[in-house]
């Protein structure tokens, strides 16, 4: 199981590099990365772009691969393709995780991995109270080529829409799967919430 942590964007809605903002004694980026590193994922690939040099010191010494996407301004699909180039050839599944979702603990990530490995569906995603969230796991044998063919800033949503019959939804008790930090208001709220 490989995981792509997408951290290449410009955070235009926030107006400043949100992933470098503090969350407790670390940054939002470090919390999201730490959750993946402590999970059952076999390899973590961080895709950087905007201000990549600010993130590299936060990765140093950790068991992660860092790749830089020079075309990040052309949308999330370019980061997915760049990350796919670094995925181990033996990997069966690809977890797509967003760096602005720091409230997804390793236990939830492990639950999704377990569901993917045990099940027969090619796509696994979490739901919280019926709402779909992230991270999403896709079978590389089934969807690797489709991932490479994506364009623009839609991420893997197109693939999910095309293959609804192959999706396994896993209900989790973790609101973090539907929460991302997009603007100042959301960031301020997260400062006062004790998330699981």
How does this structure look, described?
The chain has 196 residues and is an alpha/beta fold. It has one domain (2-187): Spore Coat Polysaccharide Biosynthesis Protein SpsA, Chain A (Alpha-Beta Complex), CATH 3.90.550. The chain contains seven helices and ten strands. It has helices at residues 28-37, 52-59, 76-84, 106-118, 140-148, 157-162, 184-192; strands spanning 2-7, 22-23, 26-27, 43-48, 65-68, 93-98, 123-128, 131-132, 136-139, 167-171. The strands form two sheets. Strands 1, 4, 5, 6, 7, 8, 9 and 10 form an eight-stranded mixed β-sheet that branches. The chain starts with a strand and ends with a helix. The model has no long low-confidence stretch (mean pLDDT 91).
